[in-house]
Amino acid sequence: MPTVGLKRDVLFSILGRSYSEDEFNDLCFEFGLELDEVTSEKEMISKEQGTDKAEGASEVIIFKIDVPANRYDLLCVEGLTRGLLIFQQKLEAPIYRMIELPANSINQMIIHPSTAAVRPFAVAAILRDITFTQERYQSFIDLQDKLHQNIGRQRSIVAIGTHDLDTIQGPFHYEALPPKDICFKPLNHKKEYTAIELMELFSTDSHLKHYLHIIQDKPVYPIIKDCNNVVLSMPPIINGDHTKITLKTKNVFVECTATDLNKAKIVLDTIVCMFSQYCAAPYRVEGVKVVSPDGSYLMHPELPYRKEIVSPKEINKSIGISEDASSIASLLTRMCLPSVIIDNGQSLEVEIPPTRHDVLHACDIIEDVAIAFGYNNVNRTISDTNCVAEQFPVNKLTDLLREVIAAAGFTECLTFALCSREDVADKLGKNIKDIPAVHIANPKTLEFQVARTTLLPGILKTVACNKKMPLPLKLFEISDVILLDKTKDVGARNQRHMCAVYYNKVAGFEVIHGLFDRTMQVLEVPNNDYKFIPVDDAAFFPGQCADIMVRGQNIGKLGVLHPDVITKFDLNMPCSVFEIDIEPFL
Question: Nearest Cα to 410, choosing from 306, 508, 343?
């Protein structure tokens, strides 16, 4: 969940009264939010960087509030306080409207066909005659950052640009050019750079370097210009310095470029709805004509209102309450969803405003009724339906085996289900092409590239991290591995494995052998029903590895690890292991 940090005094000033921490925490809970922490800038810096770095930092009290990930309208102080005031019935939900201009207006954005190769969509709007203060301006910037990180997915899906409209002139052109043909002065810089130079310049920038990969390998980079070829921005990297917004800016041109048109519309609607309250005509937004490469056009922002019909009877049944239609309509209105009664009280017509893009289905409306009614006010009742539940057999067997192995002196460990390709292949002397592993499409780190096909690498890495502990180290794990399986609808299946490792100055093969025999005894497998068949495996010492056959089925391997494997996992003493599939014993 995103966390929004708001200055306490500013928050209370807008809400019209002061609250104690407990009172405000209760208000947040009633509205479906959570007061996560009460802190200050000085306290946060002190925790993260030390007391010395915190000297001179502000001691203004900050409330950090957890907001649902899909409530984009609550990511700034404007939207959150507006929602709370409407919830407390101190304010009516505003009506957001777009001001349409003549067809020949210069407020146009023309999208060129070349953008299809990088970011094909763009939308725009104008906040006319807006008044900024330092607090409002900072909130304006913070909201853009929150939207970039949240719905914008680190600017990869949506990137926002805001510009001083009085410094530029429409119509505006959104096109894509070769990097060598792009040259402008980036925000807060004093000289012009080509796009190639900018990529090199920002490669060491702690903030912008994280976004370079989005377009760096593209043959063309997106660029927005006005009719005089003044560069507004090179999305999703940086704006131009020419259009920089200041506290004196009166007219703001907002543009969003994207790979997903619907998300671009949501972002644009959110920004203009939140900050149009500071315009001379509150909640009125000037439209921009966006012309597509095929010549068609749309006016943005759309600021769509739509109606949903819901049944009070179904709402009461779903939540477990017995409110009449009028009461439910009042509860929804408090949640910024104005509602009226229709069909003689049999239905409610709920209006979904452009700030509530999280409402996708009737169940979202029912959830808001539950929040407004108060979860603590719903009477606890015994369900009319009684279901007989039981533990999955594989989990029951797992729990039983855990107790037995722990009683034998082994310590359980829980390792990551994801690992590197080296862990399951190279380090075990195998070829990754021969491993039926599920590969992660875009791994964020080399440590998590594939889903594990064996528990052994995770346990060996755990041993490596605990080499300073007294010997011997006796570890085990009973968890799932993931294997490719074309017969499954998802192309893969989980398989419950058990793996045990003995690490000491001597291999201790007899310890592992004994543990396996004990396991078979507990599983009530007679001695003549299982046997070991010698095999060669690159992960094991030659002549000291065997397949484990139970009633004619191969369930795993047992043996002493090869010195090369031990070395690759940063170990320096012998290891005996066994790993088996426990599902055949169900």
Answer: 508
- Give the pairing of strands 473-484 and 492-503: antiparallel
d(CA 485, CA 173): 50
Share of the chain above pLDDT 90, in %: 76
Contact 194, 202 (CB under 8 A): no
DSSP state of 445: S
Q: What is the pLDDT of residues 162-182, one digit of tens each?
A: 999 999 998 999 999 999 999
Contact 118, 217 (CB under 8 A): no
Of 566, 559, 421, 569, the C-alpha closest to 500 is 559
- The band of 385, judged by pLDDT with boundaries at 50, 70 and 90, is confident
DSSP symbols for 556-579: EEEEEE-HHHHHHTT--S-EEEEE
- Residue 289: is its pLDDT beyond 80? yes
CA–CA separation, 309 and 315 (whole Å): 12
**Can you read off the two tokens belonging to residue 82?**
């507006």
Contact of 145 with 3, CB cutoff 8 Å: no
Q: pLDDT tier at 441 (50, 70, 90 boundaries)?
A: confident
pLDDT tens digits, residue range 184-213? Answer: 999 989 899 999 999 999 998 888 888 999
CB 449 within 8 A of CB 424: no
The Cα–Cα gap between 414 and 46 comes to: 34
Q: 239 pairs with which residues across the strands?
A: 233
Helix or strand holding residue 173 (H, E)? strand 172-177
- Scanning 425-571, the segments in alpha helix (DSSP H) are 456-465, 509-522, 563-568
Summary mean pLDDT of the chain: 91
Backbone CA torsion sign across 368, 369, 371, 375: negative
Poorest-pLDDT segment among 381-390, 412-421, 462-471, 559-568: 381-390
| CB distance 314 to 336 below 8 Å | no
Residue of 317, 315, 286 whose CA lies nearest to 303:
286
**Is the predicted pLDDT of residue 103 greater than 70, yes or no?**
no
Residue entry with tokens 């992960």: 539
Beta strand residue intervals within 397-552, DSSP E: 411-412, 418-419, 450-451, 473-484, 492-503, 530-534, 540-550
180-213: buried (b, 16+ CB within 10 Å) or exposed (e) per residue? Answer: eebebebbeeeeebebebbbeebeeeeebeebbe
Assigned token pair, 554 = 């191969």
Q: How far apart are CA 328 and CA 323, in angstroms?
A: 6
257-273 b/e (C-beta count within 10 Å ≥ 16 → b): bbbbeebbbbbbbbbbb
β strands within 262-396, DSSP E = 284-291, 297-300, 306-310, 339-342, 347-352
pTM for this model (two decimals) = 0.70
pLDDT score, position 127: 95
| ∠ CA 416-420-424, rounded to 5° | 90
What's the token pair of residue 1? 């969940």
